[in-house]
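Try this one yourself first.
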């Protein structure tokens, strides 16, 4: 029997793809750039310079007496071609430090990459996530290891923004400042002496984010707001290693950076390490791409239509190869995808995932300082997220390009897109169901991308996709004819390309 609700939902998505505001609905019209399959054969194979020697994995090592056997950081100006992961490098900053020698076991996009998540969760949290929903309803296959159920949370930065504190009195947090609240409270209570966070450049340009070592709440306040661009969070590792005053550290970052940090944190010799994560998806690879995405995609230049191909240059290839949307290795994660879409963003609740006892203590510090307000346990409702995710993937221009489909270059007028966004937001999955939809959509889309870009052979040989993500992919392959057909089309396109 045909489900008329599903049919109507599919028709609406096909009509509006590419026109919905990305903050309100995780749908966009995209056109894929064909990427050369990754074949990692070492790091920066060019000859080493004076005073250096070649390491066995291809890294140049300093041989001067002042810095014996220290690897030579890769010059950031050579990104991405001179970086090990090439076009799939997320520019996390690791390779721009002497810790570049750890890249093969730390990088989220080399070798097993994010396939290491299972054992890394065990090391960080004391156990890996349950691969089926637990009796208390915790959905760990989607949301990762949970110390307690996902709940709603809201920041309260008013005390920090008062004139007495001599901070910028404008609240430039993207939502209510939950991440800022936790980081500030940890400094105020001396849980940590330093916070690694991402701030805008000295010129105030959000498209060129840079990591800072924040020693005060005023420093932390520089990190307010989202910067939708790749950020080299780990670029400060050498500064941490050589500064004896840094003993207790809070690292703030997105999934790929957190994975690399977790792989080397024991090398820093710190007394205590905390990790505060955020949800992350689809960042821009360069400042120019970030500006163009905002100008064109968010209508700042008052254009009348959104081009479907805008995602081709504005989404970093590393984001299309990411399977850690929920930041599974952080102690606590602040997100947005399961939050109720009610009212203005700077007054709305976000979601909070506490993964272990350390994460619980981080949240407690913020609530004790009255900088964080905990709400109810997050709930889900609305339409089936599975059908919605599958339909969205099949209409995505990135996937249409991979499978030989008709890529939509222009969306419908903005007013129609906004009307459809309202209808879909009302009739579609809500709360945690929307979160599940968003997670499944990104996992399915990204699986098809790496299947095309890396090839089925590497996926089988290296297992670069986490078990939980492959389980979700397999569920759709087994039960969803539409997604199974897309999978077969990608493989067919590969066969055609090999014959040409």
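Now uncover the answer:
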């Amino acid at each position: 029997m045909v489900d008329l609700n599903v049919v109507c939902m599919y028709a609406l998505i096909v009509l509006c793809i590419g026109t919905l505001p990305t903050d309100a609905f995780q749908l966009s019209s995209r056109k894929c750039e064909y990427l050369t399959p990754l074949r990692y054969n070492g790091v920066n194979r060019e000859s080493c310079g004076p005073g250096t020697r070649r390491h066995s994995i291809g890294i140049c090592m300093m041989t001067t007496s002042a810095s014996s056997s220290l690897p030579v950081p890769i010059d950031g100006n050579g990104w991405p071609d001179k970086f090990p992961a090439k076009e799939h490098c997320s520019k996390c900053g690791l390779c721009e430090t002497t810790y570049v020698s750890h890249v093969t076991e730390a990088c989220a996009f080399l070798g097993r990459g994010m396939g290491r998540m299972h054992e890394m969760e065990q090391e960080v949290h004391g156990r890996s996530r349950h691969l089926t929903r637990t009796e208390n309803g915790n959905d760990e296959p989607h949301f990762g290891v949970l110390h307690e159920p996902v709940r709603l949370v809201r920041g309260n930065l008013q005390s920090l923004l008062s004139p007495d504190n001599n901070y910028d009195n404008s609240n430039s947090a993207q939502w209510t400042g939950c991440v800022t609240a936790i980081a500030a409270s940890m400094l105020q209570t001396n849980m940590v002496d330093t916070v690694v966070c991402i701030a805008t450049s000295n010129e105030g340009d959000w498209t060129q984010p840079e990591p800072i070592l924040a020693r005060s709440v005023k420093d932390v306040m520089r990190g307010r707001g989202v910067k939708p661009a790749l950020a080299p969070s780990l670029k400060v590792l050498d500064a941490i290693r050589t500064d004896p005053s840094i003993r207790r550290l809070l690292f703030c970052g997105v999934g790929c950076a957190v994975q690399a940090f977790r792989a080397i944190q024991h090398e820093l010799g710190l007394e205590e390490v905390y990790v505060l994560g955020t949800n992350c998806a689809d960042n821009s690879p360069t400042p120019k791409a970030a500006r163009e995405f905002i100008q064109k995609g968010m209508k700042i230049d008052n254009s009348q239509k959104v081009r479907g191909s805008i995602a081709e240059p504005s989404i970093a290839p590393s984001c299309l190869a990411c399977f850690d949307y929920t930041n599974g290795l952080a102690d606590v994660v602040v997100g947005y995808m399961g939050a109720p879409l009610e009212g203005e963003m700077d007054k709305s609740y976000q979601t909070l995932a506490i993964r272990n006892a350390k994460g619980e203590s981080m949240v407690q510090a913020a609530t004790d300082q009255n900088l964080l307000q905990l709400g109810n346990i997050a709930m889900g409702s609305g339409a089936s997220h599975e059908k919605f995710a599958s339909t969205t993937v099949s209409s995505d221009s990135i996937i249409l390009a991979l499978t030989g489909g008709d890529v939509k270059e222009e969306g419908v007028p903005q007013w129609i897109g906004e009307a459809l966004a309202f209808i879909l937001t009302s009739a579609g999955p809500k709360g945690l169901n929307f979160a599940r939809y968003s997670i499944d959509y990104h996992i399915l889309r990204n699986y098809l991308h790496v299947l095309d870009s890396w090839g089925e052979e590497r996926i089988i040989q290296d297992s670069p996709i986490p078990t939980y993500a492959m389980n979700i992919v397999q569920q759709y392959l087994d039960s969803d004819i539409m997604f199974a057909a897309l999978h077969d089309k990608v493989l067919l396109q590969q066969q055609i390309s090999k014959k040409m």
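Discussion: Residues 1-46, 297-308 have pLDDT under 50 and may be disordered. The chain is about 35% helix and 10% strand.
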